[in-house]
Write a structure and sequence with these properties.
This protein is α+β, with helices and mostly antiparallel strands. The chain contains 5 helices and 18 strands. It has one domain (5-237): Clavaminate synthase-like (Double-stranded beta-helix, 4-Layer Sandwich), CATH 3.60.130.
């Protein structure tokens, strides 16, 4: 999909995000401090929670495939449980701090439209089968021990659709339908790889902020040589 570039604080940024699920915000300082500024500019008083920003520095990295940002991380801070990530973060902001010397182009997919285009059996699996969303990461520090049960496609209580994509998905423990679930996930992965190869690529400039509706759009980037650094922040709004 094509992603519009809009100056920060331009009302068209909010319009583009609402219409397509993605927008590139330009004109802010190349600093992680620009992430909450961009979020406030687009969402205003509808911002509910901002999660700690994280810096990702990759060196001579392979492809990062299509995914939605979500995780379920709760930590103990002086005896109080504090949520560091939320499995239903509804927007993600990615600021490119420094581009790699070669490669690293970005791509975005409208996941709602993509999953609606799949064959009926696969669509039914995505909307009808429970899975453990983060079971593959069991044992990760801060990740709750209780399985996070959900479906790839669900709706919030206000009717907002969530189309998930994470490499942490596994069948539920001792699910009698595990063989079918595993086979369907293999088919789903193959379809995602197929469409990923067809997506248009675009290059972010240093300081650009890619803003995504995390319920609707998946994103990724191509392999690169050299060092590439991004700052990432996920948020929840009233719409979540």
């Amino acid at each position: 999909m094509t992603v519009s570039r809009v100056q920060a604080f331009d009302p068209l940024a909010r319009t583009a995000l609402a219409e397509t699920g993605a927008v590139i915000v330009t004109g802010l300082p190349n600093s992680p401090d620009s992430l909450p500024v961009a979020a406030a500019a687009l969402f205003g008083t509808s911002l509910r929670e901002l999660y700690p920003h994280r810096t990702r520095r990759s060196v001579d990295s392979g492809v990062v495939g299509l995914h939605a940002d979500s995780f379920d991380v709760v930590v103990d801070v002086n005896g109080e449980l504090v949520r560091r990530r939320h499995p239903d973060e509804d927007y993600v902001l990615v600021l490119l701090a420094s581009q790699a010397p070669a490669g690293g182009e970005s791509f975005v997919l409208d996941a709602h439209a993509f999953t609606d285009s799949l064959d009926p059996e696969l669509r039914e699996f995505l909307v009808g089968s429970d899975v453990d969303l983060y079971g593959r990461w069991a044992g990760t520090r801060g990740l709750p021990a209780t399985p996070r049960v959900g479906r790839h496609v669900e709706y919030t209580r206000t009717g907002r659709r969530i189309t998930r994509r994470t490499d942490g998905v596994v069948p539920l423990h001792r699910d009698p339908d595990s063989d079918r679930v595993t086979a369907m996930m293999v088919r789903f992965d193959a379809e995602v790889e197929r469409v990923q190869a067809t997506l248009p690529r675009f290059t972010l400039d240093d300081g650009d902020v890619l803003m995504l509706d995390n319920y609707r759009c998946w994103h990724g980037r191509d392999a690169h040589t050299g060092v590439r650094t991004v700052h990432i922040q996920t948020v929840r709004t009233d719409d979540a």
